[in-house]
Amino acid sequence: MSHLATRSIPGGGLLLVIVFVAVLASAIAVTYSAHLSRQLVNDLYGELHERDKIQAEWGRLVLEQSTWMAHNRIEALASERLKMRIPEAADVRLVTP
């Protein structure tokens, strides 16, 4: 009986080394995958922050455009309907109080 217990399985040591290498490779792959995932999430948050800044700027530009368009519209209505015009420099007189 003791003779059977000391007997090793042929290739058993090699199988153990193969399993150890596979487990080690799997652990390294999991670590790399977690690192890559965190890096991609950080990149995503950076891009989302950039998008928010650009959207805020876009909103300001749209507001500015609507302000300028309202000014142009009022100027066009004043010149067309009321026949108003910007006076020439010679027509302007300063009145002191």
TrEMBL record:
Domain of life where this protein originates:
Bacteria
Family membership: Belongs to the FtsL family.
Keyword Thylakoid attributed? no
Give the subcellular location: Cell inner membrane; Cell membrane
Classification via InterPro entries: Cell_div_FtsL
| Topology in the lipid bilayer | Single-pass type II membrane protein
Q: What does this protein do?
A: Essential cell division protein. May link together the upstream cell division proteins, which are predominantly cytoplasmic, with the downstream cell division proteins, which are predominantly periplasmic.
What keywords would UniProt list here?
A: Cell cycle, Cell division, Cell inner membrane, Cell membrane, Membrane, Transmembrane, Transmembrane helix
* One GO process term, biological-process aspect: cell division
Specify whether Cell division is a keyword of the entry.
yes
Q: How does it assemble?
A: Part of a complex composed of FtsB, FtsL and FtsQ.
This one is known as Cell division protein FtsL
